[in-house]
Amino acid sequence: MPFDGHEPASPEPVLPRYGERSLAEVLPALMAALGLPGGQDGIVIPPVRAAGLLLIDGLGARLLDRYAADAPFLSSLPDAGPLTAGFPSSTSTSLTSLGTGTVPGHHGMVGITMRVGSGRRARLLHTLHWTGVGQKPPVDLRGDFPPEGVQSGPTALERAAAAGVGVTVVSARRFENSGLTRAALRGGRFRGVMALGDLAAEMITSLNAPGRRLCYGYHADLDALGHDHGPGSLPWRMQLGAVDRLAALVAENLPSDAVLAVTGDHGMMTVDRKVDIDTTPDLMRGVDLVGGDARARLVYARSGAADDVFATWREVLGDGALVLPSAQAVADGLFGPVASRVANRLGDVVVVARGGTALTRTQVEPGLAALIGQHGGLTPDEQWVPLRLAHNA
To answer: Which superkingdom does the taxonomy of this entry point to (predicted)?
Structure first.
């Protein structure tokens, strides 16, 4: 069925639409609009000289539709979405899919926490902070596991820069040289900012510079308020209004031969049931490591225990989660085609929370366990993200 610009009516779960309408197709589409090869048929953007991409962390398509009155500018823009975030619908995975133009099974950033290394070197890597998990103080793993090795493929920004496009990354100063930036968004010039004002100013300056330009801008605070207060809460809605004005400022100052694309890395939902893995002994029986996040878990079984672990998790969680052997998750297309170097990171059992369930770890991840708003799963609220396009003709 041809895509008609409206979100399809789809029951849970929403499977990623890789190669067609997912986050991995956004930068290739913008690069095609700049005259570079590699665009696909799923997203078509008319030719431009300069292209801006504003990524609002936590901006789900359903949330934007639900609270359109709080974001009148974004809601008025032509809608080229919605897109699926991919699996898991979490920041590290989504930003890497966006930044590389490839699926999780290819780029290998398959969870907020995931197993890297093998044998005695195997450990959980926290891909947002690039540290070990459950260690105090946290141990920086950029030396042991260089981001350029964990995600070794070229980024879309590197490809654009190599083709002669002026590339700029505009994000918070603390993210310069972070593990995730190096893995997912390396390439081009990094411009560190402090607030909405200089984020808008840096994007406007970049897009108005001469020659072909590609500018990526990132804003994190909507996601943070959704986690702490819940998506749709008054603080979240106030922040959505600020984000709306940010997008409007950039769009109002676009040159006539430029486009601004606005999207999110995932949506979010409020959880109403928490299952604590750390205090449920059955869930840790036969388990070596538990990765992922509260809505999408990667379970790494001890040698010979995978079948028992699968059966136990399915029995304990019941209707609260979709529990799959990792081979089944791969066959179902959750990660897209999986490269051999990535397969070890998926674990033995993939667990996707259903409904309002969160699979928390109060001892190992107390901060994450306490959050009201969560994401990572396959519900429509988590999966669908917008793609709004602005021109200043």
So the answer is: Bacteria
- Among the residue ranges 118-127, 262-271, 364-373, the one predicted with the least confidence is 118-127
Q: What is the pLDDT of residue 82?
A: 94
Please tell me the predicted confidence (pLDDT) of residue 10: 40
Q: How far is CA 73 from CA 6, 78, 236, 390, in A?
A: 18, 10, 17, 10
- Cβ 171 vs Cβ 193: under 8 Å: yes
Q: Supply angle C-alpha 195, 224, 190, rounded to 5.
A: 40
Task: Report the pLDDT averaged over residues 81-95.
Answer: 97
Alpha-carbon distance of 162 to 345, in angstroms, equals 30
φ, ψ (nearest 5 deg) of residue 196: -65, -35
**218 token code pair:** 């990132």
> What is the spatial order of strands in the sheet that 287-293 belongs to?
287-293, 296-301, 349-353, 321-325
| Domain residue ranges in the chain | 23-108+151-269+379-390, 273-374
CA angle 80–336–8, rounded 5-degree value: 35
Compute the Cα dihedral for 268, 270, 275, 278 and give only its sign. Answer: positive
Phi, psi at 213, each rounded to 5°: -135, 140
CATH class belonging to 23-108+151-269+379-390: alpha beta
Region 213-232: what's the mean pLDDT? 98
Neighbours of 119 (CB within 10 A): 5
DSSP per residue over 27-38, as a string?
Answer: HHHHHHHTT-S-
Q: What is the mean pLDDT of residues 294-317?
A: 97
Q: List the one residue out of 178, 112, 114, 183 whose CA is nearest residue 153.
A: 183
Domain 273-374 belongs in CATH node 3.40.80.10 = no
Quote the tokens at residue 170. Answer: 């505009």
pLDDT digits (tens, 9 = 90+) for 323-370: 999 999 999 999 999 999 999 999 999 999 999 999 999 999 999 999
| Tally of CA atoms within 13 A in the half-sphere of 374 that contains its CB | 32
